[in-house]
Amino acid sequence: MGKILVHVGSQGGEAKRSSLEVLSHVSRKIAGSDDVVVACVFDVNPGRLEQTIGEYGADDILMYMDPAYESHLNGVLAAGLEDAIRATAPSLVVFASSESVKDILGAIAVNTGAAVLPDVVSFSAGSGFVEAVRPVMAAKSLARVRAEGELIFVSVRSGSVEAIKNPKNPGTTTFEAPIKPADLKQQLKEIIKAADETVDLSEARVVVAAGRGVKDEVGKRLVEELAGLFGGGIGASRAVVETDLFPATAQIGQTGKVVSPDLYFALGISGAIQHVAGMSNSRMIVAINKDADAPIFEYADYGIVGDLYTVVPLLIEEIKRHK
Fold first, then answer.
1. Where would you tag: which of 15, 43, 83, 129 has the fewest CB atoms within 10 A of its CB?
2. Can you tell me whether residue 137 is helix, strand or coil?
3. pLDDT exceeds 90 at position 181
4. Nearest to 38 by CA among 75, 68, 83, 78
């Protein structure tokens, strides 16, 4: 394949976990070959990410530095990625399937003439082709897909692969950000977060999610306390969001966010397929529901049949005792 370009997203001065998963996976897949993994990063100060990117398997790093990268602007990021593609002439470009990547993937593909396989959970590449598996029909089924071409883009769903360190000593090249006045016509005025949103759900290692079984402020406080013990994010099903107990930004599922934490607590969640589509990549799922026939138990690694208002306080007490 030659060169493989991996986009490493950043947030708050750190590389995104989903990007490190992709970088690590690609690096391990090409181990022993002559292929080269080139990481590209766009940040106000990309040098602060150099060590981390090297730890997860990059052979080379392209660093684009500009204050404009402080906020996500589609035109600015797209221009940078297109420049990185021209600089490296890769046969394959791999992204984490984040919301920001979804915004621009189609436009970059059109501008570079690339074939695209979006939101896959696994892939393999050969000379001039990539074969992949991707969820369809609200993740109820998996489709095997194939793309052919001189340049192919693949975006990988968060949590589909593991971020395992594969330390290398990469070379680095710093590029001037290819920003044109037209790219700055779009301006990000403000990022509005919910008042209680302290952890980015898409990057959280632990998520505590509330379903219809969380009926009031007492239940909400239990969710918040459990999440707080782990430093985790708080999510919710659509049904409970519509009761206004939790903000729309907490919604997980087909019409909400897709999460892939190491540990996912489903509290009072029935397990409708629309919700499962947003959390099925979680590495461990713990479900608490008083309905023994709730579909969520089909996906759970551990299940407790019981009233969450009784079970969760006991769980919190036990966790505190062992901390």
1. 129
2. coil
3. no
4. 83
24/134 same-domain check? yes
For residues 231 and 212, give the distance between their C-alpha atoms in angstroms, rounded to a whole number.
23
Phi-psi region of 161 (alpha: psi -120 to 50; beta: other; left: phi over 0): beta
Give the pair of three-digit tokens for residue 149: 């071409």
> Identity (one letter) of the amino acid at 211?
G
In DSSP terms, 79 is beta-bridged to none
CATH number for the domain that contains residue 17: 3.40.50.620
Structure tokens at 4: 């493989």
22 by DSSP, 3-state: which?
Answer: helix
Q: Using pLDDT thresholds of 50, 70 and 90, give the confidence band for residue 182.
A: low
Do 284 and 173 lie in one domain? The reply is no
Going by the DSSP 8-state scheme, the letter that residue 253 receives in this structure is S
Full domain range(s) for residue 288: 201-322
Mean pLDDT of 270-299: 94
Q: Are residues 147 and 215 in the same domain?
A: no
What's the CA gap between 302 and 287, in Å, rounded? 6
This prediction has a pTM of: 0.82
pLDDT of residue 34: 87
Nearest residue to 80 (alpha-carbon basis) of 154, 147, 152, 179? 179
CATH code for the domain of 257: 3.40.50.1220
Does a structural domain hold residue 191? no
Residue with the two structure tokens 């903000």: 247
Question: Alpha carbon 223 to chain centroid distance?
Answer: 23
215/217 Cα distance (integer angstroms): 7
Contact present, 17 and 9 (Cβ < 8 Å): no
